[in-house]
Amino acid sequence: MNGEGLYEVKGLTKVFSTGFFRTTRIYALNNVSFNVREGEVLSIVGESGSGKSTLLKILMKVERPTSGTILYRGRPLERWDSREYWKEVQAVLQDPYSSFNPFYRVERPLYMAAKTYMPSASEAERMKAIRESLEFVGLDPDETLGKYPHQLSGGQLQRIMIARALLIKPRVLLADEIVSMIDASLRANVLNLLYKLKTEAGVSVLFVTHDLGLASYIADRILVLYKGEIMEYGDVDSVYSRPAHPYTQLLMKSIPRVTSKWRDRITTTTIEFKTGYIKGCVFADRCPIARDYCRSNKPTLKEVEPGHWASCHYALEALKSAH
Ligand SMILES: Nc1ncnc2c1ncn2[C@@H]1O[C@H](COP(=O)(O)OP(=O)(O)OP(=O)(O)O)[C@@H](O)[C@H]1O
């Protein structure tokens, strides 16, 4: 990893207006700032409704931010021509089944991508590239090509979508909950593949998940989101072994371990629908250490140790009492 900034995100805010008169305002993201370094895996963790998909949609240029700036390789995102941007940034989404048409063979998305992004290549060159990218993701091209989606597992289909992204030789892979719909036994294959992408192909990965355990498995750094705001952010070893935010501490307790009983788990829930702007800490209502001050004053990210930030007025206290 050379540590150079790939994305620089500053003050990113996305407000949705809903309701009959469009007067209900939902802060899907509020003042989110972070960077993505070249060659790293950054995991973005949060419960349902925390703003993960909105963030990825903005990075995919599907949604436009309400305010804030995003630089991709030093140039504002809106100044990147979409075609030029998609040559560098590819996305793989949650549901592998929805990416395939059941009436076409599974190679169709691969052919389409090769045709679009290798316009001057011959048929033989495109076919060679398709076979190579299937091999990279651990699939036997002879076993895979010619099959229909229902003849392959979710994990195999997800790997074909990663192979499709790889054909374009991207710098960045945006991965939105890509293992949540595949069997637990196949998850490790896909996660190991993401690791191989980083180490062997030098691809930077934004890995979006609701599962802190999965997030830490392959990440270099972790960003924890709650109700559209960053709770904690930093190097995976520090965040995972010394979570400083009460929310991350709660998420840690909800990771199943072989040594803990089911009844000891704290199950996290879907975040209730949030409307309007919350003046204080967005986590105060669920926080075990919240004080009155937290409800009326918004915390900002503070460095609790080198390379590790938490957005909590009492982060240092929480860190000390928990460890
Ligand atoms: N197009 C939209 N119009 C109105 N509200 C939206 C829209 N998209 C997202 N939201 C709201 O913004 C908030 C964040 O949603 P988002 O989908 O980004 O969360 P998420 O963390 O990806 O959740 P999930 O894991 O369930 O996909 C939610 O309250 C959601 O209802």
UniProtKB/TrEMBL annotation:
SMART domains from the UniProt entry: AAA
Q: Where is the ABC transporter domain?
A: 7-252
What is one Pfam family matched by this protein?
A: oligo_HPY
- GO BP: peptide transport
PROSITE patterns associated with the record: ABC_TRANSPORTER_1, ABC_TRANSPORTER_2
- Give the record's keywords alphabetically: ATP-binding, Nucleotide-binding, Transport
MF terms (GO), sorted A to Z: ATP binding; ATP hydrolysis activity
Give the InterPro entries listed for this entry. Answer: AAA+_ATPase, ABC_transporter-like_ATP-bd, ABC_transporter-like_CS, Oligopep_ABC_C, P-loop_NTPase
- State the protein's name: Sugar ABC transporter, ATP-binding protein
Q: Name the source organism.
A: Acidilobus saccharovorans (strain DSM 16705 / JCM 18335 / VKM B-2471 / 345-15)
**What lineage, starting at the top, does this entry show?**
Archaea, Thermoproteota, Thermoprotei, Acidilobales, Acidilobaceae
